[in-house]
From TrEMBL:
The keyword Repeat applies. PANTHER family: LEUCINE-RICH REPEAT (LRR) FAMILY PROTEIN (PTHR48009). Residues 8-50 form the Leucine-rich repeat-containing N-terminal plant-type domain. Residues 369-389 are annotated as: Disordered. InterPro entries: Leu-rich_rpt, LRR_dom_sf, LRR_N_plant-typ, RLP29. This is Leucine-rich repeat-containing N-terminal plant-type domain-containing protein. Keywords: Glycoprotein, Leucine-rich repeat, Repeat, Signal.
């Protein structure tokens, strides 16, 4: 039986150096296989996958390195990332699973010209995102979420010359304005950072966008056109102006714009089949006008804490009592009437949740509301010029 080719000496020395910089956290035994004397890394080291050298040499190269197990309950690793990572020049995938790895991402990682997938999540990585990552033209996915990174997103990291499709930078301390995203991304998650300024350009290929819990401001106009968008979360920022009409025409599963300074009316919609299974949260804004019947087909609808007026359309009532509209929050608006539901309101499904308190009416039904809605059922008369309670 033919013996497998040995690991390239450069890769072997790099793995040894990587090991010297990292340790198992107490309770983890990931490195036990690495510490066996004389073990072949390609067949014995946990997290190491090798392939024969594509250049025809009689040796193997490390193509995938997964540091840690990634299993639920695994404690992960501690230490820092060695610059020797940059010597694994045949590497296609580098993953550092959740643990307590700290320090900077070494610039030598930019020597990995074949790298396609980079994931270093839920550790204590600090410093800046290496600007030289823009030179990795094969890089498809970057996931650096849940670390302590600071500074801006490198300007050219999202240029049209990049192969990047997935960018996840969730829950860091990244700041500054956002660059234009000109690469053909389909997933961008930059929530829970300190980004400021207006929204940049996004590619028409985008399907998932989350930028919630930042300090972004200005209008939402750059969210149009994004015809492939299926998930949008821009909540908890400082956006203003009206909601672009096109957002209600996308085949979107979740539209989350709560806790901004959005104003104006929701566009009138006669058919909302695209949002039939969606969650729409527009709460805690300054939206006005009457409730559009087109939103009655949504599964979970949060319109509370706005300035909506007029009667609640009967379609909302029929759907929430029929069970297709599972959550309907309309509290803290200026709504003037709520149609008496079938059976007098006694038949709200157990899975349903309805709150209509603190409006300009005496509610015909009083289902339990969340504690944040307060105990007062109706607005004071002096706040309701058209009060009909």
């Amino acid at each position: 039986m033919a013996q497998p080719f040995p690991l390239h000496q450069q890769d072997l020395e790099s793995l040894r150096e990587i090991r010297r910089n990292l340790d198992d956290l107490p309770g983890s035994d990931f490195f036990s296989s690495w510490d066996s004397t004389g073990a072949d890394p390609c067949s014995s080291f946990a997290g190491v996958v090798c392939q024969p050298d594509v250049g025809g040499g009689l040796y193997q190269r490390v193509q995938s390195l997964n540091l840690g197990t990634g299993l639920a309950g695994s404690l992960g690793l501690t230490g820092s990332l060695s610059p020797a990572l940059g010597n694994l020049t045949a590497l296609l995938q580098l993953v550092v699973y959740p643990g307590n790895v700290s320090g900077d991402i070494p610039d030598s990682i930019c020597n990995l010209q074949s790298l396609q997938y980079l994931e270093i999540t839920s550790n204590s990585i600090s410093g800046r995102i290496p600007a030289c990552l823009e030179n990795l033209q094969s890089l498809h996915t970057i996931d650096l979420g849940y670390n302590n990174l600071h500074g801006p997103i490198p300007a050219n990291l999202s240029s049209s010359s990049m192969a990047l499709r997935v960018l996840i930078l969730t829950s860091n301390f990244l700041s500054g304005p956002l660059p234009n995203f000109d690469a053909q991304f389909f997933h961008i998650d930059i929530k829970k950072n300190l980004f400021t300024g207006f929204l940049p350009r996004f590619p028409a290929s985008l399907r998932y966008l989350s930028a919630s819990q930042n300090r972004l401001s200005g209008p939402l106009t750059n969210l149009v056109p994004l015809p492939q968008l299926s998930f949008l979360d821009m909540s908890m920022n400082d956006f203003n102006g009206s909601i672009p009409t096109a957002l209600f025409s996308y085949d979107i599963s979740s539209l989350l714009l709560q806790r901004n300074n959005l104003s104006g009316q929701i566009p009138s919609m006669s058919q909302r089949a695209n949002l039939a299974a969606a969650t729409v949260d527009l709460s805690h804004n300054n939206l006005t006008g009457e409730l559009p019947v087109g939103l009655a087909g949504v599964e979970n609808l949060f319109l509370n804490n706005n300035r909506f007026t007029g009667p609640v359309p009967v379609e909302f009532v029929n759907n929430v009592y029929g069970g297709s509209l599972k959550t309907l929050y309309l509290q803290h608006n200026y709504l003037t009437s709520f149609p008496v539901p079938p059976g007098g309101g006694a038949g709200l499904p157990e899975s349903g949740s309805l709150c209509i308190s603190y409006n300009c009416m005496d509610p015909p039904v009083r289902p339990p509301c969340p504690a944040s809605a307060g105990k007062q059922q109706s607005r004071p008369v002096n706040q309701c010029p058209a009060y009909n309670g």
